[in-house]
């Protein structure tokens, strides 16, 4: 397919593919005819906001906990719970959001879900004790799960098979940008000695302000999606072909600069089934649940049940491996910084330096003497390097995804991530820890994104969001279990945490051999 440059202010790279006009056209033919141009770039720009919001809201506490340890009187186990609690909320709500996304539509779930999440995120930012913080983050997890899942399906359903893998990789880049922005934001706010009271009720510290800034991203996500239409694929599946055609015509006009009347597709195939003919409204909760139960029954039968089980196991294993370490990295770098601060800027074996991560049990006297080392610029530099490496990894993977295919690249990145993260155990300097963790978590993030691509491609539209929701829920279960177990493994010794991370990352690579190839496969 050749790419055509359109001039006079309308120039975009647009796929000059015009399927033969017929009485009825499939979604794949119709979305291909819209080309790729301005409309798609607007979509990619807008989805960058919820991608960043998802990242900062799930990772922000990993930066806050080392700084807020004295203010909140946190033990090592408390830090594990706080790192994990948001994922517990996601697990509880995961399957239900999948039902509602497929029954009620992507857009409404995205808009309302992010606004409600914003309320709880702001509550977490203003809290002054760990109990309230745990509750607020738990509820944030419950409500952020749905809109983030919906954004993935929404984006995929605006693109043809040629571009779906690439735009999903772009989502990974945006999440990595969030990883890049977070240490910069943390460096700009957290070391500041800001302590004041609001109305004599809220004691505000620098970490409260940091959480408040992070909370604003969820509100912005809901706001931006107000201006986007519903997914044309969802509209077709719901029997709303006229609305779907109007969206496709608008895409075509913006991408090509041509009149929407010249759009070669005039009629769309009726995809509606008998139990799916009604227009779903927000108030039809009972109908949505009934439909969700029917679809859950479908996904638990062949051939879908095999791929669902495979997706769940791989997501659980890989994310328990890479995401657990990712969330503990700021604390690990803080421990290294503390060791160097106390030993004339010298490094040592990683196991020796990690002893700084394991504080003594808190009591009244120790709390009075509690202090945080704020001379920790190296923490933010190292986390920035780790985040920047992830962006580079996604850029490189864009080249390899077409060369090797999604399945093969998934296998390679799983094994590579597992080996590198396990090798941290042998590191004898802070520089070695930074390099190994940067490349290891970067390849793990690429593998996570590739697993999402496989799930999106292997399930039909009516089951896609449910399947993705269950996939993501399994991954979050891995994060939950990993973060709860990790501090106890640290108590056992230095080796167990790294063996734990390596074994489960490698298991994902082994089981990825059982996936089917999805290259250039039409969206079902």
TrEMBL record:
Q: What is its main location?
A: membrane
Q: Where is this region: Disordered?
A: 1-25
A Pfam family of the record is Sugar_tr
Family according to the record: Belongs to the major facilitator superfamily.
Q: Where in the cell is it found?
A: Membrane
Range of residues in the leader sequence: none
Q: What is this protein called?
A: Major facilitator superfamily (MFS) profile domain-containing protein
Q: Which UniProt keywords apply?
A: Membrane, Transmembrane, Transmembrane helix, Transport
Cellular component (GO) terms are: membrane
Residues annotated as domain Major facilitator superfamily (MFS) profile: 43-520
- The UniProt regions of compositional bias labelled Polar residues, in chain numbering, are 1-14
Keyword set includes ATP-binding: no
Q: Where are the transmembrane segments?
A: 39-56, 81-100, 109-126, 132-156, 168-189, 209-228, 377-396, 408-427, 433-454, 498-518
Membrane as a keyword of this entry, yes or no, is yes
Membrane topology, as annotated: Multi-pass membrane protein
Q: Name one GO molecular function term.
A: transmembrane transporter activity
Q: Which SUPFAM superfamilies match?
A: MFS general substrate transporter (SSF103473)
